[in-house]
Amino acid sequence: MAKDTRVAIDVGGTFTDVVSLSEESGKLRFDKVPTTPSDPQQGVLDGMGAAGAALSAIDFFIHGTTLGLNALLTRRGAVTGIITTQGFRDVYLLGRTDRIPMYDFKYRKPESLVERYQIVEVPERMDFSGNVVVEFDDDAARKVVEQLAAQGVESVAVAFLHSYVNPDHEQKMAEIIAEVAPDMEVTLSSDLSREIREYERTSTAVLDAYIKPIVRRYLKKLKKSLADGGFAGQFLMTRSGGGAMTAEAAQEAPVNLILSGPAGGVLGASWFSGVTEHPNLITIDMGGTSLDASLVIDGKPLTHFDASFEGLPINLASLYIHTIGAGGGSLVWIDEGNHLQVGPASAGADPGPAAYGRGGTEATFTDAALHVGYLGNGSALAGSLELDPSLAKSALSKSADALGMTVEDVALGVIRISTTKIVGAVRSITVELGHNPADSSLLSFGGGGGLVAVDVARELSIPYVVVPPGPGAFSAFGMLMADVQHDFSRTRITGIDFVDTGSMTSDFDTMESEGAEALVSEGFSKDDQLFSRFVDLRYVGQEHSVTLKVGDTIDGSEIARLQEAFARAHERAYGHTMPDPVELVALRLNATGRVQKPTLPPVAKGTGEATPIAENQVYVGENDRVSYPVYHRDGLGAGDVIEGPAIITEHTATTVMHRGDRAEIGALGEIVISVSKEKRNG
After folding, report:
1. pLDDT for position 654
2. Which of 200, 286, 436, 491 is buried most deeply by CB count within 10 Å?
3. What does the mean pLDDT of the chain come to?
4. Residue range 225-278, pLDDT digits in tens
5. Could you tell me where the beta strands, DSSP code E, fall in 125-210?
């Protein structure tokens, strides 16, 4: 059987999203299947079945998962130890002295992933230039490995001082661990990050070690199941920093997968901005459990190198994604002050919202949307899941009785509370970073994004809401746009005026050789390899830096250009420049293996008008319901116009627009909604 199908699967908290592309016909198919929390790989296999292609016919499979993230959230990772330089045992536990929630007197540091008795020291020491000051003690190293093994440690992070310059001692430690405790998983900090700041490097290595056994078991089991079914194509995973990595590379460095699922939507948004007239996009991805917000500026996703998980730094490139507990399954509850609240706890996939009829009795956002009238138009959720209005009303009645409100007002209140939370998430990635939301369009996807998108846009004066084709599975679709990427870095602290351009070029050439070697091993020819060079610059005395792209030729004129570009970038980021001298902090190289991108065929031209298939009575407050015509997206053509109020339903999502809003169907089938400035429902 000819291999002509590409499949992307994004496993979420409630649903597993599936996108399949026939390379021969160019046909895209969007599907959803329930997530299987007890056996995550089963949801993937179910998704493969929903794609409608035999495993032997699939030549490309890319996968995003929250497995590692969930292990961290629930503290169900491996028993983890740390091996560090003698005298530096408490680096990880002490962390930094800054306090992120500065004025929260209830704040408590998150529970550590490693207990102090699981942190051991080895006599060894290098200086900041990589010269050996204290020789590595082989006998002491063997003893600490035996000690950790006796404690039941399953995985260990090795983080020696100044290993970012010279990793020899960490590599010797790995050899001894393999000899003394061959079943123990090992993460070397120098394999993940070649940058200063021992705490950040140690934290990154610990996060990797903590989830490594779980991720490895999952990927090995999934690979075997796929192979047993006849799959022999390329298997990739999406990375937190954008792009993709091979499943083999993911097993070696699973810390790169922590934000693997949400990254797909950002990659899709970046691609989408390039094929439409919306170069600046704010994205909201509302799934069953959470909502992810991100930013695309001039077609490029916003990235950063100081990501963290619950205050624990991850010293790797990550897409700037802000996540809150505001999904379709977010639970409705009443706080101690007798106020209505929504989330962050979720009903998840099992039992799910009350309206699913799977035994859930607690009200959720989905139940509220159903009772208000946004859902329940005869179309099944995710194509096959029928919602029960009576179960939704019964669940919401508990809160209504407790608050002395009508069920309708509670349901509308739930939607408004969720909208306010989402507005806050969008503000955190725009206004708080110096970006005006009004300069961007709002790209709405995920199964629930379209239910609140126009309200969010109206609150923030965003002029347009764009709903891409297949919004419910758009994160999975975005994964098909992911190139394979490898990131390399070197710390090189020196004044910009004293930079040795020859040494700088040599460092970049070395990293490029390492990147080319990795890409060749993964099957990428020279023509499909792309290398991008960057530097981190800062004013002398600063803690944080600005990342700038470097030209192909590094000479005096390029250094001068970088200084000028740094001043402009610093002013954009922080609102000012300074007369202080500038220093180079780090060199970075991105090695990319380009994969073939799918294309969306244009949709057939419409008549200019759309015909509704039904009408929903939508509650807009004050005991008033308004008739909202319901349109099916499959019946819309390019150029068709819909005046609000209206509901547009489709296989994987629902989009709601109110009075004064106006939607037009674009050439690729995207819905572009001009948002009314008047703040009102109905």
Report:
1. 92
2. 286
3. 89
4. 999 988 988 899 998 888 888 899 899 999 998 877 678 889 889 988 988 889
5. 125-126, 132-134, 155-159, 185-188
Q: How many CB atoms lie within 10 A of CB 651?
A: 21
**pLDDT surpassing 60 at residue 546:** yes
Contact 202, 158 (CB under 8 A): no
The identity of residue 388, as a single letter, is D
3-state secondary structure of 249: helix
Number of residues in the chain: 682
The whole-angstrom separation of Cα 209 and Cα 204 is 9
Report whether 496 contacts 504 (CB < 8 A). Answer: no
pLDDT class of 2 with cuts at 50, 70, 90: very low
Q: Tell me the C-alpha distance between 13 and 349, whole Å.
A: 6
Give yes or no for residue 199 having a pLDDT over 60. Answer: yes
pLDDT greater than 60 at residue 523: yes
Task: Quote the CA–CA distance of 208 and 165 in Å, as a whole number.
Answer: 20
Residue 382 has pLDDT above 60, yes or no: no
Q: Hey, is 641 helix, strand or coil?
A: strand
Instruction: Report, in this order, helix, strand and coil percent for the chain, each rounded to 5.
Output: 35, 30, 35
- The pLDDT score that the predictor gives to residue 673 is 96
Coil vs helix vs strand at 92: helix
Spatial separation of the C-alpha atoms in residues 512 and 496, rounded to whole Å: 22
32 Cβ contact list (under 8 Å, min separation 6): 15, 16, 17, 18, 50, 382, 383, 447, 472, 473, 652
CA angle 148, 96, 589 (to 5 degrees): 85
Decide: 257 and 207 in contact? Cβ < 8 Å. Answer: no
Going by their DSSP bridges, the two strands 234-238 and 58-64 should be labelled as parallel
